[in-house]
From TrEMBL:
This is Cytoplasmic protein. It comes from the Bacteria.
Length: 136
């Protein structure tokens, strides 16, 4: 399996996440669910010296951001996650249904893939299950 393209996509995802955050951070946890014709992504990040994560949808409310620029970055994030999903097919690997991408500010990265059918579970329930598993 050729992983070079996948590694580049992971790096692009990390770069976009970093650009989206308006303050220094210690850890980012991203959830992406992709299937043909559907994409849902959210993330949490921990500001430096904070034990309380900030939900991605709260960033615009909490900080005075350039909304157009933030939307462009958000679109890039969706594009890269979809590109990663498609790359699994190109590499003749089973396409995942969701992933959790964990990035520490020292550059350490972990990716957890899930392959179960999530189409019958509502987005709020999925997010709560994910939060219980990944947020302390």
């Amino acid at each position: 399996m050729n992983t070079e393209n996948m590694e580049n996509i992971y790096q692009n995802i990390a770069n976009v996440l970093n650009d989206m955050l308006p303050e220094e951070w210690s850890r980012i946890l991203l959830y992406a669910e992709i299937r043909e014709g559907y994409a849902h992504i959210f993330f949490y990040y921990y500001p430096i010296n904070s034990k309380k994560p900030i939900y991605s949808l709260k960033i615009e409310e909490k900080f005075n951001l350039d909304i157009q620029r933030y939307s462009e970055l958000e679109n890039q994030l969706y594009d890269y996650c979809e590109e990663l999903w498609h790359e699994f097919g190109v590499q003749q690997q089973e396409e995942w249904t969701s992933l959790t991408f964990i990035l520490d500010n020292n550059g350490k990265m972990k990716v957890h893939y899930q392959y179960n059918d999530l189409s019958e579970i509502d987005p709020t329930s999925k997010r709560k299950q994910w939060e219980e598993k990944y947020l302390p």
